[in-house]
Amino acid sequence: SIADNTCFHSKPINYQLYPNPVKNYLYLNKHVDENIQILIYDINGHKRILPKQDNNTHWCIDCQNLPSGIYFVELISTSKHQLEKVIVKR
């Protein structure tokens, strides 16, 4: 997890994450057929959301209950690990 101070040295996961900044819903489209897990953390490293997958390549992440601030989306696959910064604006 983000709090583990893990060093990430892998090829990036091929995806599109939008919009950023986000108001209500954050969308993630994955461009490869690879299972991934998505975790969302606040700026303090606390896990805030465990998104549910809509289908094999698309997620719609409800951010309506998150206060304004900076969050980190962690994408994890069997061979890759990636972080993306997202801003929630109200």
Provide a descriptive summary of the structure in words:
With 90 residues, the chain is an all-beta fold. The protein is built from no helices and seven strands. The strands form two sheets. A four-stranded antiparallel β-sheet has the order 4-3-6-7, with no helix packed on it. Strand 6 and strand 7 form a beta hairpin. 13% of the residues are buried.
Question: In terms of topology, how is this protein built?
Answer:
Layout: E1 15-18, E2 25-30, E3 37-42, E4 47-49, E5 58-62, E6 69-76, E7 81-88
Strand content: 35-45%
Number of helices: 0
Global morphology: globular
Task: Specify the structural class.
Answer: mainly beta
Rg over CA atoms, rounded to whole Å, is: 12 Å
Task: Please tally the β strands and state the result.
Answer: 7
Q: Main sheet: which strands, in order across?
A: 4-3-6-7
Major sheet, described briefly? 4 strands, antiparallel
N-to-C series of helices and strands: EEEEEEE
Quote the distance from N terminus to C terminus.
27 Å
Key attributes of the depicted protein:
90 residues; mainly beta; four-stranded antiparallel beta sheet; three-stranded antiparallel beta sheet
